[in-house]
Write a structure and sequence with these properties.
By secondary structure, the chain is mainly α. Helix 2 packs across helix 3 and helix 3 crosses helix 4. The longest helix has 24 residues. The model has no long low-confidence stretch (mean pLDDT 94).
Length: 118
Amino acid sequence: MKAGILLIRLMLGLTFVVHGSQKVFGGFVELMQMMQGLGLPTFFGVLLGLFEFIGGILMILGVLSNYIAVGFIAIMLGALFTVHLSQGYIASEFVITLLIMNIAIILSYSWKKLIQFY
């Protein structure tokens, strides 16, 4: 059980580091334009990219895993309902998988521990 949730946590962290780094090192331009198109303040794009990148690193390290997972759930719900769901299940399945992985983290780890070693 511990090895399984560790693999989920590592893969989840890696996925968000990769996607966040594309946003951070890409200059946030596309993300800011997307936020503006959704009627949201453009700085949300910067916050989103930074949270994905830094949160992914923290998830890999096992630091504040539950709290980071809650943030990732919020991001994935936003992505699901604003972009992916209207395009059908095939376009939504990766986002749904990431949602389920984050829920598994929340259910498996203690909220009292700041660092998870497994």
